[in-house]
Every structure is written in C-alpha cells, then in structure tokens.
Amino acid sequence: MKRKFERPYRPEWEQDPLLSSWISRLKEDPDVAFCKSCNCKLVTRLSSLKEHVLSQKHEKHMIGYSGQSSVQQFFKISPLEEEVKKAELNVCAMLVEHNLLRHSPVRGRKLLR
Ligand SMILES: [Zn+2]
Q1: In what order do the strands lie in the sheet with 23-25?
Q2: pTM higher than 0.85 for the full model?
Q3: Within this chain, do residues 15 and 57 fall inside the same structural domain, yes or no?
Q4: Could you give the CA distance from residue 8 to residue 89 in angstroms, rounded to a whole number?
C-alpha cells in the first residue's frame, strides 16, 4: 500500500535540468523515483526530489558524478599528447608575440610544420 502523499513517477522529471542528470525510475517499481548518484529510492513527489537535490548526501555523491561518460573522458588525451599540445601552443604564442612570421615567414612556416 502506498503512502498518502506519494504520486506516480513522472517521466517529464527526466527533462528537468535540476533532476535530469541523476533521476530514474526504480527498475523493480516504475512508480518509484531513484537517484542514480546516491543509489537510493526517493519519495515520488517533486518537493521531496528538490529537497533531495539540496541534501548534503546528494551533494557529496554528485561530486564527480555526471550520470554518463562524457566524450572528453572517452577520448581522454594522454599526458604526453597534452605536453605536445602545450609545447605547440607555446611555439605559436612565441611566434605571434615576437612577430616572427612577419620578419621571417619562411622560417616561421618551417617551425610550424
Ligand atoms: Zn541523490
């Protein structure tokens, strides 16, 4: 038997920017809301869900939780590639800062290859 104030799960909550990253239906009971971040059942009422968002428990679990892998995580750049990019940026910044392309365009182009 359901409690007096519980309401069925509303799929539109999954579109709400405040809730969308962590809310889902409980697999065993589709009328119950579930926090994927805290791994807990929630009272299926919007005011309770908003209270949950503000709770210390939820805030703690949301640190580092995105709900899904980002494209950047999937194509994670290795530390060596990161260093090469930084070095390339430094060379470009130096060329621009000292206006080397204007004084020696051929030499500047060779550096960029
Ligand atoms: Zn939570």
Answers
A1: 23-25, 33-35, 40-42
A2: no
A3: yes
A4: 54
Ligand 1 centroid to 14 CA: how many Å? Answer: 14
Based on the number of CB atoms within 10 Å of its own CB, is 44 exposed (0-12), middle (13-18) or buried (19 or more)? buried
CA 20 to ligand 1 centroid distance, Å: 12
Question: Are 58 and 84 contained in the same domain?
Answer: no
Q: Are residues 78 and 57 in the same domain?
A: no
Q: What number of other Cβ atoms are within 10 A of residue 49's Cβ?
A: 21
CA of 58 to the centre of ligand 1 (A): 4
Residue 81 lies in domain: 74-112
Q: Among residues of the chain, what percentage have pLDDT more than 90?
A: 45
Neighbours of ion ligand 1 (CB under 5 A): 35, 37-38, 58
Q: Give the chain's domain count.
A: 2
Handedness of CA 84, 87, 93, 94 (dihedral sign): negative
pLDDT digits (tens, 9 = 90+) for 80-102: 777 888 888 888 788 888 877 77
